[in-house]
Design a protein that fits this description.
The chain has 13 helices and 16 strands. It has about 450 residues and is of the alpha+beta class. It is globular.
Length: about 450
């Protein structure tokens, strides 16, 4: 994969004048014209193409401009397990590894069963794994020293487009098209990189908590020094001595969202409205409360998130947000950037905090935050009989705790009240379990719910 610098064709080279170095080389997606990759400028470093992400434009009649999907081409290092005619190394072991891993992950998703082993080729090792471990990382059958030894071999290309995984060729990878294959990310590695990495000391990836040293706005202990005009603080930042960042500490959480694009619909052949593309949501408010300790139930995060895109719908009935809440020039709330809100949540995840809330699966998906299942306590699943409907937070609070949620009476939401209510419900769950009456209480609640048609009396 040549990556070379060159002067523009129209530029006349002055042999008597020293040419300034060219800062950014041009990238050519053509085949390697020299053994071992390609040179960059006058340096002796050589590079190889490792992966390519391309965008495919949707050609469906109802597709909007810019809609489509991404395709990943990646090259897998090989062992000298088999050679085909022409001397190309065929990565049969790598192909089987990827296929077996994906088949097992799909089995976990569809059947909810743990993966017992991943078998790759003849005599390959088997790796015990749980469903969570399989979804999080793959255990390779290659020894690290083998991967290092053959990292710079031609390897085997694969293509993954969300629908299928299959082998590809070097020539196919290098083809490009303005509509069906538009390169948007090209990944190179320097020749001999594996040997260099092998000699480096392996250290744990730094926690996102390090971000607090970069800017005060990223710190969980940052309290706005002076309340804004008309702003009453709704949270108390963590103090240095608090234990919220210790592994296993409870954090009650709730988030609200706004729509930054409208859903795209069309009318089907029978007159039924079909959602072609759902509305895209963005995090607009997130609240985190202490789950234990002397300040249990007190918020330490209550961030209104400034939007990078225009809001097309505040979803007030579900979010409690109205125009102006996310505008720094007029809002009376504490507002911060999406990056700051995300990094604060990331710090809690990395610290091992256990999140308590209602419907957290959807919230974390929209936030685009990966949280291990061992760190999630979702009250929508705690108070649920398999095969039956899932129960709203408002009904659970009224029936089990005698709480009339004030925001629901106004047909809106408030993330602090929702998070605090979920925490109370979890405490009620522990209480019922300790008394040995949880199963009976759950059945009684379903009976009452059916009698009331799941409406909370006012």
């Amino acid at each position: 994969m040549p990556v070379r610098t060159e002067a523009p064709p129209s530029a006349a080279r002055d042999e008597t004048t020293e040419q300034p170095p060219i800062g950014k080389p041009r990238v050519h997606l053509d085949a390697d014209d020299k053994p071992g990759g390609c040179a960059v400028g006058q340096r002796s470093e050589r590079y190889h193409l490792r992966a390519l992400v391309s965008f495919t434009q949707s050609l469906l009649p109802h597709a909007t401009d810019g809609s489509g999907h991404l395709v990943l081409h990646f090259r897998v290092p090989t062992q000298p397990c088999e050679k085909a005619s022409g001397g190309d190394v065929v990565s049969e072991a790598a192909r089987l590894l990827v296929k077996a891993a994906i088949d097992n992950v799909l089995k976990v998703v569809k059947e909810g069963l743990p993966v017992s082993k991943v078998e790759v080729g003849d005599g390959a090792t088997s790796a015990p794994a749980t469903a969570a471990a399989s979804a999080g990382r793959l255990v390779p059958c290659f020894r690290p020293e083998d991967v290092v030894k053959h990292w710079d071999d031609p390897g085997q290309w694969f293509v993954w487009n969300d629908f299928a995984l299959q082998p590809s060729t070097d020539a196919e990878v290098r083809k490009a098209h303005s509509e069906w294959k538009r390169p948007c990310l090209v990944v190179y590695s320097v020749d001999g990189l594996a040997e260099r990495v092998e000699h480096l000391a392996h250290t744990v990836t730094p926690s996102a908590g390090k971000a607090a040293y970069l800017s005060q706005e990223f710190s969980l202990m940052h309290q706005p020094p002076v309340p804004l005009e008309g702003y009453a603080p709704t949270f108390t930042a963590l103090s240095p001595g608090e234990s919220t960042l210790q592994r296993g500490a409870l954090v009650a959480i709730d988030a609200e969202f706004v729509a930054v694009t409208r859903e795209v619909t069309r009318v089907g052949a029978r007159g039924k409205t079909i959602v072609v593309k759902p509305a895209r949501l963005a995090l607009a408010r997130v609240s985190c409360l202490r789950g234990d300790g002397p300040m249990a139930g007190v918020p330490f995060i209550d961030s209104y998130v400034q939007q990078a895109e225009p809001v097309v719908d505040y979803l007030t009935r579900f979010s409690g947000l109205v125009p102006g809440d996310l505008d720094p020039s007029v809002t009376r709330h504490y507002i911060e950037t999406m990056k700051a809100a995300y990094l604060k949540l990331r710090q809690l995840v990395d610290a091992g905090a256990v999140f308590v809330g209602h419907g957290l699966k959807t919230d974390f998906e929209v936030i685009n935050l990966v949280v291990p299942s061992s760190q999630i306590i979702d009250t929508v699943n705690l108070f649920w009989i398999e095969g039956q409907r899932r129960i709203s937070l408002r009904f659970l609070a009224w029936h089990l705790c005698g709480i009339q949620m004030s925001n629901r009476l106004q047909d809106t939401h408030d993330s602090i009240e929702d998070a605090r209510t979920a925490l109370v419900l979890y405490q009620k769950y522990l209480e019922l379990q300790a008394e040995g009456v949880f199963e009976q209480a759950l059945e009684d609640m379903y009976d009452v719910g059916r009698d009331l048609n799941w409406e909370v009396p006012t």
